[in-house]
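Predict structure. Chain length: 336.
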Amino acid sequence: MGEATAATSGTPCAECGTELVPLALACPACATLVHGDRLKQIALSAGERERAGDLAMAIQTWNRALPLLPAESEQYATIRKHMTTLATTMQERAAAQTKAARARMPAWKRGLASAGGVFLLALGKLKFLLLGLTKLSTLLSMVAFFGVYWNAYGWPLALGLVLSIYIHEMGHVMELRRLGIAAGAPIFIPGIGALVRLKQRVDDPLTDAKIGLAGPIWGTVAGLAAFGVYLATHSATWGAIAQLTAWINLFNLIPIWQLDGSRGFHALDRNGRLAIVGFAGVLFLLTSQKWLVVIALVGAYRAFKPAVSSSNRGILITFALLLATLAGLSSIQPLG
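Prediction complete.
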């Protein structure tokens, strides 16, 4: 049984004597709370828990008061609001403690923890990533692609390159599936990269932009994962994989032809496109990455081509964040 004890028929209100109906929580005549004494005890106990810093137990204690109050009462609303405030405070304290703990960790451990987080996220998508390998066309073209680059750069870098491109392409596939758009499996083309062929036309600019940027988003996550391993191991191979992944995805953000950047531009108006141009220019001054110059120049040309009436804010922010992250990754300096 809960905290509440039903008032039986014929029980009078302690304040005004009005007869109370069964299960009444307050007097209908004077609004006196039937369980007022018990509520005071709960409030005192919850207050003690709060002063002791045990907010979780305080929330549990306050929760015991709710069945004793009319749901439409001011006291009920006040306690619910206070419980929400306590829960928010708990979350803020936990976040502050986590941040402080990370700050005390050596830099290499922080990098390893970040890489671990990305790895766990990747595990959640592993089933989907493996799905593409069940397609014979994808698997055979991937092996051929790997063979070409193994010959040129050695197998570790070739494998990293193949996997980063594969993850990029599966980002497109994932978004296409989410949107219910039919598409083929990724096909690798040595010397060019890979592509996913759509089986239906996409006319909506925002939908097209989401599909286009999904690849660089997944590719960036792959680059960050490689960078995390690089921080933990100081392996030049992992650093090269992270950097190469960044270059590939930065190249794909050039707003031209069928590249992902062009599709992202479909959801931006002239001002949005010029904002990306200016941001790419600033990033070039900071990182000296030449792909940013190409993105800025082509973007400036595209800014004066037909465009949507207003930019989608989410696409604009995503495009800018991708540029900043990839520019940083592509500027990796060897660790001492």
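Summary: The CA atoms of residues 35 and 46 lie 16 Å apart.
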